[in-house]
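QUALITY CONTROL LOG
STEP: pairwise intake check
CHECKER ROLE: data steward
CRITERIA: each record must contain a sequence immediately followed by its structure tokens, with no blank fields

ENTRY 1 OF 2
RESULT FIELD BELOW
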Amino acid sequence: MAFLPSGVVTLLSDLGLDDASVGILKGAMMSRFAQVRIVDICHSVPQKDVLWATYALAGCYRDFPPGTVHCAIVGPGRGAATNVLVVSRAGHLFVAPNNGCLSKIVSDSDAHVRSLDIHRVPVAPIRRAYHTRDVVASVGALLASGKLGFEDVGDIDEEPYRIGSLDLLLSDGQAEGVVLGADRFGNVFASINASDLPSHDLDFVVEIDGQEIPIVPGIHDAEPGKPAAMFNYSGMLQIVERDGRADERLHATRGTKVRVSWK
């Protein structure tokens, strides 16, 4: 699907809201495209947590209409102004440092990846203190305005950096992933998506660290005080506990093995 700019730009970052960083980012966008419509996805990504960012971005971008530009600024590597990717996928564009935060996006066979050539794109001035923030913001706004085309940003990149731990282990009758982390409610998120699995008509069994967890349609279908698994709005496997914290109940931390099996 070709990209037709809608004027919408989303922002995902680990910058937080305690200082002016996000405001500076938005100001840089508006300086290039005054009519830009900016949507904040999240600015509370754990600091430098590229793994969390890649799943957050891949999980939410389809909720936006085609023609949206998605900008991600999550370290490490966010200071490398000359190492930025622009990716086209399913009618959306993505702009982010080449540090792995687009790993899930570039893994799709329909994704087209280009490495930003800073000498071709009118992003100056770039402040020494901000580098990639200025670059990503400027490029995102220019793409959203239609003043800059995807083909004009730079050469095709055949080998963008990808996070190796994203590889899902699939075998006959099961998929094995890992815990990515938990949110502030104690809900645990795993690196297994509904799209990785066969038809939902099958009876799935979820195991985390050897403990079997029942699958329910939603959290209100879970038995209070006991962990249950579900596929959330973005299709990600999520383990919850109604009226409790699943992460504490299961002692689940990043890297804990999670398995989904079926017959």
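ENTRY 2 OF 2
RESULT FIELD BELOW
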Amino acid sequence: MFRIDILLFPSSIALTRRDIGAGAWTRPECASLIGGVLCVLLIGSSAAQSGGAGTPSPSSELLLGRIQQAAAHQNYIGTFVHHEGGQMQTARITHLADDSGETEKVVMLDGHPREVVRHDDLVEAYLPEGRLLVVEKRAGRRLFPGLLKGPVDAVDANYRVELTSQARIAGRTCDVIQLLPRDNLRYGYRLCADRQTGLLLKIETLDEQRDSVEQVSFTDVEIGGHPTRASLRPSVPSVEGWNIEHRDSEPADVSQQPWKLDADVGGFHPVTAVHRVFASGRDVVQLVLSDGMASVSIFVEPIRPDAAPRSEGEARKGPINFISRALGQFWLTVVGEVPVQTIRQIAASVGLRETPK
């Protein structure tokens, strides 16, 4: 769940089947389908020093918490590379944590020029070619090298966490940790966390055969120091004449929606729900489910009479699976970096509430 284009340009818009394709996944309006499900993971601890392969972690809470803290509170500058499906994308990240909070800048180094500047939950995404600035708040969602989508106890319930060995990434010693799924409803993960600071240096997504299907890894990183404020400013000198989209959202009460989630599926529990009304008139509710590590987004919107016809179906892009179908007078989209059977089960669990007679 790390597609850099998805990570950089979230918009929480449900895709139609025609949006799936090589070009569509780099469009800013396609980017946050996963509600942030896609960038993640874990950490190491000096306790691994004496552990052998398959050694149970001394404390999942300690391991996972340490990487969360490192991503939020360490200062770092580095270049990371995302590999998936024979494709590669590279980005440069600068992160500063001080008394004013967190400030972070991520710049794509290949493909179309794109960059994101974040201060705490306020995110500004700059797309110079389209002269577009997207502004939105994204509470609780972090890009690589950030981590958890839900509480640590959810991770323990759904994954077996093991310290296995040591490695070197970007010239630094790191602890290798595996998260092995307890069932077939989620992928596994292999990660490498900096031994000294706990910062995540590399994360791999493992499919059902434990083959690596996606990875994000620092190629160089400097941890510590104090990045300058100037280095965190957008490189665009001015946005005068640009289109500026404020993608505001408000909390949604799913219990008041005409649709419902009949049951939690495979340890995926609701963690947040938001409501957005777009300038185009689209009215979308997004419910995010998580098992602690992975997340799945459910998007529901009324079918507008003037909307173009949509096709029901399934699609896959690397480890991301997607399903879209009609739900009465609504359009349902479920997407996440989980096996297809999980997406199908979650989609099947969404139904309409009975109308009082």
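INTAKE CHECK: passed for both entries
DESCRIPTIVE NOTE, ENTRY 2: The chain has four helices and 22 strands.
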